[in-house]
């Protein structure tokens, strides 16, 4: 499986920025699990941290399935407790994964989130990722990024 390097628990920290909000730091735990199927189950949890980097309170979660295809493409389905689900399509290029949303479906009370792009990479054994998003009538722009190490 071309994304087998992701299997396991990853932990670390990241930063967030977006117009209309204050910049912030966060902690993150990501789990990729495999049950023998041709997909990985994904669970990401982020949390506010104190000055020592300890988790203080939960921020958000996302969960879903990463489905690598024989032609080197990747399909990802993710759901969020804020009331939206995304369909992502992308390309696996060795230890680098590029994804873009194909569809974002929102509940009536969810944020006006329209599109996203993600980049994941295995850099010297660490997982680095970024998220650009288009929300609240704004164009696609940098939102989140993190550096995680295998736990």
Describe the structure.
The chain is mainly β and 151 residues long. The protein has no helices and ten strands. The protein has a ten-stranded antiparallel β-barrel with strand order 1-2-3-4-5-6-7-8-9-10.
Outline? globular
- Mean pLDDT figure: 96
Alpha-beta content class: mainly beta
Q: Give the helix tally.
A: 0
Query: What about the largest sheet?
Result: 10 strands, antiparallel, barrel
Q: Strand content of the residues, in percent?
A: over 45%
Helix percent band? under 10%
Q: Keyphrases for this structure?
A:
mainly beta, globular, 151 residues, ten-stranded antiparallel β-barrel
Topology diagram in text:
Layout: E1 8-16, E2 24-33, E3 40-49, E4 55-68, E5 73-80, E6 84-93, E7 96-106, E8 113-123, E9 126-135, E10 141-150
Antiparallel strand pairs: 1-2, 1-10, 2-3, 3-4, 4-5, 5-6, 6-7, 7-8, 8-9, 9-10
